[in-house]
Design brief:
Layout (H helix, E strand, L loop, with lengths): L2 H5 L3 E2 H7 L5 H9 L3 E3 L2 E2 L6 E2 L5 E3 L2 E2 L7 E6 L22 H4 L4 E2 L8 E7 L2 H8 L7 E8 L4 H9 L2 E2 L2 E2 L4 E8 L4 E8 L6 H8 L4 E9 L12 E3 L2 H9 L1
Parallel strand pairs: 9-15
Antiparallel strand pairs: 1-4, 2-3, 2-5, 5-6, 7-9, 7-16, 8-9, 10-14, 10-15, 11-12, 13-14
Amino acid sequence: MDENAKKNNLERLQKIMASCGVASRRASEELIVNGHVTVNGKVIRELGFKASYNDDIRVDGNQIAKEDKVYYVLNKPTGYLTTASDDRGRRTVMDLIEDIDLQNRIFPIGRLDYDSSGCLLLTNDGDLALKLTKSSNNIEKEYLVRVKGMLNNEILNQVRYGVTIDGRKTKRCKASIVDYDNEFNTTQVRMTITEGRNREIRKMFDTIGFEVKKLKRVRFGTITCEGLGLGKYRPLKIHEVKTLYSL
């Protein structure tokens, strides 16, 4: 931050938006470049623009204000989109959150696709969302994956050491066989990845010729949804939030 910014307590606009619970910092950047944000009545499209919390900052005409940070874990069912809203009117994970908690303008951290279930974090803390989704931070996400067919360790090594999806090789990951279902000809695999690319696990197995039949995230960082019924959520405890920040 330059000297003038320090003197006037200025921060990058997207950081202010994230800390006020508008969206993650990355999503806030998209709002800025697409012309949705004004500062003191002027449309700002520059990602390097700095402002202060005392400025009149608005998104689509709605003034933002600094909010208390809130954090939740949801046991996501299949059949819900992981997004704050959907312009086609489809069900989203926000439909599972009570209105009183939606007042904090929370949003999901990272992806968990429509056909997948399990541990999903939601917050209005854009800084934490960025930390947990940035690939270089290597935050672990653990999954139970049921695939069609009988896998063995030799085949699974292809996934462990990385396969090419969407033109780019995946990072190395942990993967172990949990069990076989001979009746239905399936294998269950426990996987831990540190990326969060779109439908990454499904694409990884598709690359080696195995269709994913069921996918459940059982851990995000240090957080699990143990004890939560499907579609239920709870606030994170203070020590859980501190642990996530320490990762």
